Amino acid sequence: MKILVCISKSPDTTSKIAFTDNNSKFDENGVQYIVNPYDEWYALVRALEIKESSGGNVTIITVGNANDEAVIRKALAIGADEAVRVDTDPTDAYYTAMQIAEYAKSNGFDLILAGKETINYNGSQVAGMIAEAMDLPFISLASKLDINGSTLTLEREIAGGLQVVDVNLPAVVSCAKGMAEQRIPNMRGIMAARTKPLNVIAPVAIENLTEFVAYTMPATKSACKMIDPNNMDELVELLHNEAKVI
User: Minimal CA–CA distance to 103: which of 137, 134, 67?
Assistant: First the structure.
């Protein structure tokens, strides 16, 4: 079983967010990057579980520059066998997906996994675009994945219930909560990651379909007013005149 796992970097949730160039670019100064948690905890770990139970190889791929290699090594330390970095800065979801699809097309993967979304953009687009570019079945937001020969059985939550889907391999799946549990790399994995192969490849020519015009910060939270529990009149007056429904 050859599995490709799509990996993205994301700012650590404790990072202070700022923008430059008239709010048109994300300011990376002082930002600590991590492996996108949905890619790491769900997609990568489930791929490793499949490899451990059925054999095979797990390759991770990311679209990014040399600064991303620390994040890639973290994913290798968790247990991936090898890594690929497409040597270009990702400009949008389409550009990223097409770079990954071009690599995957020529390498015969049985299964392509990705997290359901990134925590910085929350787009949930890349996996679906990869499937479309490769003309493969795509299941989104899967919370469980089992393999029986050349068939995948997946579960995903839908409004009011749980959907069970069977699909033939090869296929593309985006992974959600429930797919696997987080793993912490041990010292042996960290040491082994230093020598695992990291193949840097040139990007293919892909048209950028979108551009980021501006970023804005969320509105500052207003101060919290504390009301004496015995002063119901003041509470009612504030609810009528100051409270806002969002």
Answer: 134
C-alpha pair distances (Å), 54 with each of 5, 146, 148, 149: 17, 11, 10, 10
Average pLDDT over residues 222-227: 80
Neighbour tally for 192: CB within 10 Å: 14
Contact of 143 with 176, CB cutoff 8 Å: yes
Q: Is the dihedral of CA 106, 109, 88, 190 positive or negative?
A: negative
Q: What is the H or E stretch that residue 50 is in?
A: helix 45-54
28-84 pLDDT, tens per residue? 888 888 899 999 999 999 999 999 998 999 999 999 999 898 899 999 999 999 999
163, 156 contact by CB (below 8 A): yes
- CA pair distance 189, 79, nearest whole angstrom: 7
**What is the DSSP code (8-state) at residue 88?**
S
CA distance 56 to 205: 31
Give me the residue label for tokens 């995903």.
156
Q: Rounded to the nearest 5 degrees, what angle is found at the Cα of 113, between the Cα atoms of 109 and 118?
A: 140
Q: Which domains are seen in the chain, by residue range?
A: 2-215 (3.40.50.620)
SS3 77: helix
How many other CB atoms are found less than 10 A from the CB of residue 126?
29
Q: Kindly report the backbone phi and psi dihedral angles of residue 227, in degrees, each rounded to the nearest multiple of 5, phi listed first.
A: -110, 135
Neighbouring CB atoms inside 10 A of 244's CB total: 5
* DSSP three-state, residue 93: helix
How many CB atoms within 10 Å of residue 40?
A: 24
Helices (H), 106-145: 126-134
